[in-house]
Amino acid sequence: MSVLPFDKRDGFIWFNGALVAWADAKLHVLSHGLHYASAVFEGERAYGGRIFKSSEHSERFRASAETLDFTIPYSVAELDAIKHQVVAKNNFENCYVRPIAWRGSEMMAVAAQNSTINVAVAAWDWPSMFDTETKMKGIKLDIAEYRRPDPLTAPCRAKAAGLYMICTISKHRAERRGYADAMMLDWQGRVAECTGANIFFVSDGALHTPIADCFLDGITRRTVIDLARRRGVEVIERRIMPEELEGFEECFLSGTGAEVTPVSEIGPYRFTPSAISRALIDDYSAEVQPKKKAA
């Protein structure tokens, strides 16, 4: 399938204070963010022109930058307004929204305290990837060789560019082997997450999910936990060992891109997407849609 390169698209990107033509949103090859991964970003989604949980994403965006020792020069309210402006200017209804901030080219060394902080926001058309019935077939996951790092060795609570290097490697390997994605273990060999989504399991009517202490506690993850509890489903956050996967009945992923996506197999382990996966797909779909105002 041919995909239009992202530097060849039309539209507008908000770049350091102004909307510019898509092709004009450029950075210098000696930007610190490119060489030293001093960049943070968000993955958001608009439904019906409204960005789901925009302020939560803006808060995390700013917190990620602070973790990497720089400050994004816009408030949460300003970031929310910028993102809305980008979606509206591009005439999108259902789209992906990507804010990113990075250190510029003023200093080219490990230390870069005096570098300018650049900020950009782009958006592109992206409807839901699958309908419910297609999702209910489940996707297949490999088990990644790389592991999520010890939280004492990396800023794991930040949505930082450098943390995704091993995710790209792991996803490439999985796709070459015929899988859709890969499940990653943590540094102690326990179940962690996938390369860009959190993971849940079902056993005896309860949801089990790994404790998010060495990977991102996703906004979608928190939404799914809330939706499950509203249904009266018990949610257990705990350490999960790989050998436990044999005893789970259902499995699904959560994330901005994945939304709620059931899993049919992880390596040698098999799952049957069923009632809880379907219910949470439906609940999440209803949750993200803009609420109609009463007449």
Description:
With 295 residues, this protein is of the alpha+beta class. The chain folds into 2 domains: 6-125, Aminotransferase class 4, branched-chain amino acid transferase, N-terminal domain (D-amino Acid Aminotransferase, Chain A, domain 1, 2-Layer Sandwich), CATH 3.30.470.10; 132-288, Alpha-Beta Barrel (D-amino Acid Aminotransferase, Chain A, domain 2), CATH 3.20.10.10. It contains 7 helices and 16 strands. The protein has helices at 32-36, 54-67, 76-89, 132-135, 165-176, 219-230, 275-288, and strands spanning 12-15, 18-21, 39-41, 44-47, 50-51, 95-103, 117-125, 139-148, 181-186, 191-194, 198-203, 206-210, 235-238, 250-255, 259-266, 269-270. The strands form 2 sheets. Strands 8, 9, 10, 11, 12, 13, 14, 15 and 16 form a 9-stranded mixed sheet that branches. Strands 1, 2, 3, 4, 5, 6 and 7 form a 7-stranded antiparallel sheet that branches. Helix 2 crosses helix 3 (76-89). The chain is globular and about 55 Å long. The termini are far apart. The mean pLDDT is 95.
